[in-house]
Amino acid sequence: MSQPPPFGLMAEFTEADAMTAAVRAARDAGWTCLEAYSPYPVPEAAEALEVSAAPVGYIALAAAAVGAAFSAGAAWYVSVHLYPVNVGGRPPNAWPVFMPTTYLVAILWACAAALIGMLALNGLPRLNHPAFFAHGFNRASEDRFFLFLSAEDPLYAPDAAGRFLRGLSPLRVTEVRSA
């Protein structure tokens, strides 16, 4: 039985600054398919990876606008056309009455869209990933920082990538194989 093909190489670091420096070095060397894993957010590494959270905000804003329009429209249609009731002498289309539910529905839609958008943009849920089986990767949620260079990158050559990563002084470099 042959071994599965290589998925990439994983370098393990003990400090966030070392991982951030490694990400910058990899970007400067021309690597484009790389990922960083850490137990807490590292804004400098995200900046070096050119990762942005802006699309999630736009998704939430659009969903809030659609949800608010839907809620206000539905409340107006029901109050004016389907079930007009004279309450306290107000006209059936008194818009201030619709605002509390419109506001709450907008928030609900924005939260749901932000969650779904974040999961979709991150490719989650992903219950199985070859990186999960890298030696020591279970500490990525505790106290270790990892830089992954993908075999899909045009610069990837196992020996050259290994030398490059070892030159960044990691704790260890591990080959990650496809499952």
UniProtKB/TrEMBL annotation:
Pfam families: ActD (PF11821). The chain crosses the membrane at residues 56-78, 98-121. InterPro entries: ActD (IPR021776). It comes from the Bacteria. Keywords: Membrane, Transmembrane, Transmembrane helix. Coiled coil: none annotated. PANTHER family: LIPOPROTEIN-RELATED (PTHR40394), QUINOL:CYTOCHROME C OXIDOREDUCTASE MEMBRANE PROTEIN (PTHR40394:SF2). This is Quinol:cytochrome c oxidoreductase membrane protein. It comes from Muricoccus roseus. The lineage of its organism: Bacteria, Pseudomonadati, Pseudomonadota, Alphaproteobacteria, Acetobacterales.
